[in-house]
Write a structure and sequence with these properties.
By secondary structure, the protein is an alpha/beta fold. 32% of the residues lie in helices and 26% in strands.
């Protein structure tokens, strides 16, 4: 499968280029699974000493399943590097994240690391946001406020939002690891994303949004021809 192979290529290259030991922030999603696999392999083969801090229940399970040392931000507040996926990146490494609903703790880990490194397959590498990712920008909201936040966003920034529903697995809306709801905001056009990120987070009821502006140090995109494209 060219997409899975592309994810693996990006993940392996990022771990090999950026992990020398110490405290590592582990992102969420399917690409980061390959990064944890590579990390576990290097711990086994090279005796690498790492402590892994998770960004979600999923990441925590991954760390435990691979027998890696589990840490947390209280014990390990300074991360050497955080490795995480993305839903889309523009040419300036502005990211949309949160497709998996873990954006809040992911952004915290990205902000605590000396280096924040993104790993993704070729479908995520765009020039402008919205070219390939069509599900909008995820926004984590306090459940009681989702409707008022929806209307505020529409008034201030235009575009429609949708409350993310669980689908077949569970009736009702998606509830995040932090006990909140997610609005997916379908924006229109290219914007000053730093301004949008700040505007969104100033709305009472918004916990965090999936725009990561000026945070990523480097991104590795696995390509369908087996190469890895790097952006920094
Ligand atoms: O939800 C997230 O932010 C994930 O990191 C997501 O953006 C990447 O998920 P994927 O690796 O499964 O594409």
């Amino acid at each position: 499968d060219p997409v899975e192979n592309a994810k693996r290529l990006a993940a392996f290259k990022a771990v090999d280029n950026h992990v020398v030991g110490g405290v590592i922030g582990i992102g969420s999603g399917s690409t980061v699974v390959y990064a944890v696999e590579r990390l576990a392999q290097r711990v086994k083969d090279e005796g690498l000493e790492v402590i892994c801090v998770p960004s979600s229940f999923q990441a925590k399970q991954l760390i435990i399943q691979h027998g890696l040392k589990l840490g947390d931000l209280e014990m390990n507040p300074n991360l050497k590097v955080t490795i995480d996926g993305a839903d889309e990146s523009d040419h300036m490494l502005t990211l949309i994240k949160g497709g998996g609903g873990c954006l809040t703790q992911e952004k915290i880990l990205a902000s605590c690391a000396e280096e924040f490194v993104v790993i993704a397959d070729y479908r995520k590498a765009s020039t402008h946001l919205g070219e390939q990712w069509s599900k909008g920008i995820p926004i984590e909201v306090i459940p009681s406020a989702y409707r008022v936040v929806y209307h505020k966003i529409e008034k201030m920034l235009g575009g429609k939002s949708e409350l993310r529903m669980s689908g077949s697995s569970k009736a009702g809306p998606v509830v995040t690891d932090n006990g909140n709801f997610i609005l997916d905001w379908n924006f229109e056009g290219v914007k000053d994303w730093k301004e949008v990120e700040i505007t969104l987070n100033m709305i009472p009821g918004v916990v965090e949004n999936g725009l990561f502006v000026g945070m990523a140090r480097k991104a590795y995109f696995g390509m369908s021809d087996g190469s890895v494209m790097e952006r920094d």
